[in-house]
Design goal:
By secondary structure, this protein is of the alpha+beta class. It contains eight helices and five strands, in the order αααβααβαβαβαβ. Helices cover 39% and strands 21% of the residues. The longest helix has 19 residues.
């Protein structure tokens, strides 16, 4: 007996109305690896580079929120930076993403991987550097166009500050075992001076 080939509309409707069909062909089935299609996010990696003395000095000023007199003697300046445990290297993170919902998903993805980069940098005492998204099927759904346009033309606010609630000793322990990152939760971070525009609602496209 030949199986009827469903149209796209029929397939989506069946996902919504038939529980058994959804178990076999729905999103959960895909992300658990039961189908050939891989999950949207499938890997991330980090790489580091050495910081110049100038970059280390600028980071010292930024993190201490004060202007420290710069010594004309390179060795004196190195001693000041090392004494204050100013990082010698910067770290960047790149993630790979197969499919990208530009309006609903990508802003959250950027914030999530940005936070991950900040956590790792804190744990290994490096300066968070570049955040790079290697994005595959990047799309904007037709029923999100007006919402995206509204967001683009809003006046941006100044960036907030991320403050860690855990001690430096805790993050030093993460440097030895990064699996301990899973012990963190939303109470371990404070976002200061965060401002947001009113919500822009958009339907989830299946």
């Amino acid at each position: 007996m030949e199986t009827k080939k469903l149209t796209k509309e029929e397939f989506l409707e069946k996902l919504k109305t038939d529980k058994e069909f959804y178990k076999k062909y729905g999103r959960k089935n895909i992300t658990e690896g039961k189908q050939v299609l891989p999950p949207c996010h499938y890997s991330w990696q980090v790489y580091t580079r050495e910081l110049s003395q100038e970059e280390r000095y600028n980071w010292y000023i930024k993190t201490n929120n004060k202007n420290v007199s710069r010594s004309s003697n390179q060795f004196d300046m190195d001693d000041i930076l090392n004494t204050n445990n100013i990082p010698k290297r910067a770290i960047s993170l790149m993630w790979n993403q197969r499919s990208v919902d530009t309006f609903l998903g990508l802003p959250f993805n950027i914030a999530s991987y940005g936070l991950l980069l900040e956590i790792i940098a804190k744990a290994v005492n490096m300066v968070p550097d570049e955040l790079i998204g290697n994005l595959g099927d990047t799309h904007l759904y037709s029923n999100h166009v007006e919402q995206a346009r509204e967001q683009i033309f809003r006046e941006p606010y100044s960036l907030p500050n991320l403050v860690f609630g855990k001690t430096d000793e805790f993050f030093k322990s993460l440097g030895e075992d990064l699996s301990l990152i899973t012990h963190l939760d939303n109470t371990d971070f404070v976002i200061e001076n965060y401002q947001s525009h009113p919500t822009i609602k958009a339907p989830l496209s299946n």
